[in-house]
Amino acid sequence: MFNRISSVRPVRGALAALACAVVLAGCAQAWQNYQAGADQSTIVARLGPPREVYDLPNGGKRLMWPTQPMGEYTTAADIDSAGKILNVRQVLQPNEFYRAEIGKWTRDDVLVNFGRPVETNYFPLMKREVWTYRYLEDNVWYMMYSFYFDDQGILRLTQKTPDPLHDPDRRSLF
């Protein structure tokens, strides 16, 4: 005999999962709604005052809006010296992280490119300061990307790992 209740639950679950995916995709892609050349006031009007502002070498500014509290998304807008938008993008993602140059980038380079890290640590045996960023890879996997700096502030190592806060099997370890 057909059980009406058991056939409805999977449909509701599938619809709920689909709705969550659509909402996450919308949040993740919100940064794409801005045109190069528009005045910076258009993005500030929509996202509010930036939480972080950094000077760029060309005389412009990088405005950043990290999500809170976990920081899995950070929208960054590069603004030229005339106050016009150059580009807007989500910077906490692999293709942005992979631009970091080992032996060349400093703490300041990482800060300007990704904003403040969600977590910092110092490992005395390695003599490395570690800055960690949480992010959502491919809108599916919760990950962490870490930058290891030597005592002079030079980037010496990067590391990508699953985020244990989102892994039910490992959550009890933390």
Order of helices and strands: HHEEEEHHEEEE
Overall shape: it is globular
Q: State the helical fraction.
A: 25-40%
Average pLDDT, rounded to a whole number, is 84
Our count of helices gives 4
Distance between the termini: 47 Å
Give the strand order, joined by hyphens, for the main sheet: 1-2-3-4
Oligomer: single chain
> Based on helices, strands and strand pairing, what is the structural class?
alpha+beta
Q: Please state roughly what percent of the residues sit in beta strands, choosing from under 5%, 5-15%, 15-25%, 25-35%, 35-45% or over 45%.
A: 25-35%
Instruction: Summarize the main sheet.
Output: 4 strands, antiparallel
Structural Rg = 20 Å
